[in-house]
Amino acid sequence: MSSQDFKYKTQQGSKVPLIPIELSRMDKKMLTDALIDSGAATTLISCELGEALGLKHRGEVRKITGAGGKESIIHMHDLDVELMGEKLNFKFGLPQRRGDTPYTILGRDTIFERFEIKFRQKETMFTLSDY
After folding, report:
1. Cα–Cα distances in angstroms (integers) from residue 53 to residues 30, 32, 44, in the given order
2. What are the Cα distances from residue 92, in Å, to 34, 41, 46, 122, 124?
3. pLDDT at 61
4. In the chain, what percentage of residues exceed pLDDT 70?
5. Bridge partner residues of 94 (DSSP)
6. What's the DSSP call for residue 96?
7. Position 12 confidence tier, pLDDT thresholds 50, 70, 90
8. Is the dihedral of CA 90, 78, 10, 41 positive or negative?
9. Percent of the chain that is helix, strand, coil (3-state, to 5)
10. Around Cβ 62, how many Cβ atoms within 10 Å?
11. pLDDT in tens, 70-98
12. What angle is formed at CA 63 by the lines to CA 92 and CA 110, rounded to 5 degrees?
C-alpha cells in the first residue's frame, strides 16, 4: 500500500490542503496545485488553465451549485493527471464563466474515489493512501 504525506500550503492567507499535480491533454502539459475539497461533489479546473490545455466550452453540460449557493454551468472533459507518480484519468468540469472557479479543485467524484485521504488539521498535513 502506497501512501504519502503532504503539508498544507498557504493560499490567500489560509493554510489549505493543496497537492501538486500535472494535467495533460494531447501534447500540452501543465503543473498546478489542486485543492483537495471534501465538500466538492465535482472536480473542477479554472477557465484559464482549461484554455491553456486547449479545452473548449462544449461537450457534456452540468449545472452545479457552490457552497455559497451560486450556480455555475460547467462542461465536462477527460484529462490525464499525474499524481504521486501515478498516471490517472479524471473528469474535470470547465466553468462557462471566468472567475467561477479560481483554481483546480479535486472533489469527491475523482480523488476520493481513488485514494483514502486523512486530514490532520492541527498538524496542517494530510495523507493520501491507496485503497
Report:
1. 7, 12, 14
2. 12, 11, 10, 30, 26
3. 95
4. 99
5. 75
6. S
7. confident
8. negative
9. 10, 55, 35
10. 11
11. 889 999 999 999 998 899 999 999 999 88
12. 30
Q: What is the pLDDT of residues 16-27, one digit of tens each?
A: 999 999 999 999
DSSP string, 36-62: E-TT-SS-B--HHHHHHTT--S-SSEE
Position of cell 499524481? 83
Amino acid at 22: E
What is the structure's pLDDT at 100?
A: 80
Spatial separation of the C-alpha atoms in residues 105 and 85, rounded to whole Å: 19
